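Protocol step 4 of 6: record predicted structures for both targets in the notebook before any analysis. Target 1:
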Amino acid sequence: MKNYCIDVGNTFTKLGVFEAGELRSVKSVDNLKSLKSLINGDLDVAKNYIVSSVGADSLQISKELELDLSRLHHLKWNMPLPIKLEYETPNTLGADRIASACGAKKLFPDSNLLVIDAGTCITYDFIDSQGSFWGGGISPGLSLRAKALHNFTSRLPMVEISSEPKLVGTSTKTAIESGVFNGFKAEIKGIISEYRKKFGDLKIILCGGDSKWFDPDRDIFVIPELVLIGLDSILTYNVNQKK
């Protein structure tokens, strides 16, 4: 039995195929038609599905993909989960935050964890060694910082950061690049330091598109496919509950 984990994001959709808990393949597409052809290309294999969406209706997505409804799960905060949500407003909790927390707990089941998802926003989530999710923080991501400077001022240009900028910007453009990038990195490093002071023994897991700007370090792990790993963990947990 294969697990098909579908993560519908703001700009593209990822399909992760798992077998016995191992990630076998990852594909990214920008439309549902392409995703449908990927799923239907493996007709001879029995599958379970889970759909996670940050914006679109996951039920509508599953209908468009013509998935086997008897083997389909939609990620929701109130479904059975391998972690315990202690968040005060779980109904407002993003599906990607739930999935990444479950992925981290699968990889490091006995540790205190700080999960940092560096995407459009930066989210910080603390999961204790008992598997309880407590929440953390949300702040603007790298691209959002650049857009804010451009959109909320009259003369600052829009910049896109494709390589690590120099520390001392010698033009307005390079000064924005330096401020945005180094502020982004300094914030994350500072938050990590504060969590380490408070919780001591702590593993840090980074994911999201801008996690590429960080190198693995002492108890710091960069795991780009953490959300997919979490979706597989949630799907397996729910399938086993039915047995």
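Target 2:
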Amino acid sequence: MKIKILIAALILFSSFAIKAQSVKEVNYEQFKPYLNNPSDTVYVINFWATWCKPCIEELPHFMTVAQDMRHKPVKFIFVSLDFPKYKESKLIPFIKENVINEEVLLLNDPNSNFWINDINKEWSGAIPATIIYRKNQRSFFEGQVSYEELTENIEGKL
């Protein structure tokens, strides 16, 4: 009986590890639908990179809010702007070490002058940057976002 429980636990934890290590590499055209989903879900899209100190500092706020709101219609998407050549050596190990279970995309599109402006005309391109939206309600943050700002902004869109 103990062996069956142990095997079940290992399968369960390994499925979380596989999810945490999964990173979909996308160009901007593939990413663009994430910016305008008409559902009743609140989307929190965070642009970040493993080499960005402010991004790493705010990450625990996102993880805590994601956990706090796991039973609400809120979806977190982390868009990494790391160099694609470091996906296996830096990005995936970072995701695993920090137990990021939310969806992670690697945006691999060299035409940043276009997509930065297309995402938000006020965005300088600096990271971290965060979009929080639900249907036509949209907020944009350039720079670090606190736990309180995240929570208040998401709750205001639910």
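Step 5 preliminary note on target 2. Residues 4-20 have pLDDT under 50 and may be disordered. The domain at 2-155 is CATH 3.40.30.10 (Glutaredoxin).
Proceed to step 6 after PI sign-off.
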